[in-house]
From TrEMBL, chains A, B:
Organism: Salarias fasciatus (Jewelled blenny)
InterPro entries named among the record's database cross-references: EF-hand-dom_pair (IPR011992), EF_hand_dom (IPR002048), S100_Ca-bd_sub (IPR013787)
Protein's name in the database: S100 calcium binding protein A10a
MF-aspect GO terms: calcium ion binding; calcium-dependent protein binding
Domain EF-hand: 50-85
Top-level lineage group: Eukaryota
Gene Ontology cellular-component annotations: cytoplasm; extracellular space
Gene3D superfamilies recorded: EF-hand
SMART domains: S_100
Amino acid sequence: MPSDVESAMESLILVFHRYASEEGGYYTVSRDKLKQLMKTELPSYLQAQKDPAVIDKMMKDLDASGGGQINFEQFFCLIAGFSISCEKAYQMKLKKTKKK
Amino acid sequence: MPSDVESAMESLILVFHRYASEEGGYYTVSRDKLKQLMKTELPSYLQAQKDPAVIDKMMKDLDASGGGQINFEQFFCLIAGFSISCEKAYQMKLKKTKKK
């Protein structure tokens, strides 16, 4: 049985490849597919955004080459940003429960 | 129900905190706890390593301050490295199955 970390890593790889397409041997996610991914995988984040251009800004931050596609490494940076923010929120929750 | 990405992020946060201890309001994982984490969460990687100092080298790479502790962001960099290698292996597997 895979460990929690192995399952989490596998899950992130499979989600990326659910939205990725292959061209010239490279697997990447387009802007439109990133929008679909975000709607399905991180709906609460997307709904909380007032800025309709949030996906375009995300792509701009992630897609260094400007080709309109992101690879797995760039996708993982996106997930890292969300995870680090969530972990900070989790820490605050821990500190609150400790004060009680 | 959480999405696959939400579950994976939550899982990585909970695993980190399973091994982390709190000091001065900061949650970090020590070298010894990192070794335990690796043994439980990524056993096949650890067993494949010939170098007994692999954990010390990992700490050196991750622990920029040299305080012998890693925070969640540094832990996430470790997971990123493994995930990116695994995804490359996954891509090769996909390409092989396509050639058949």
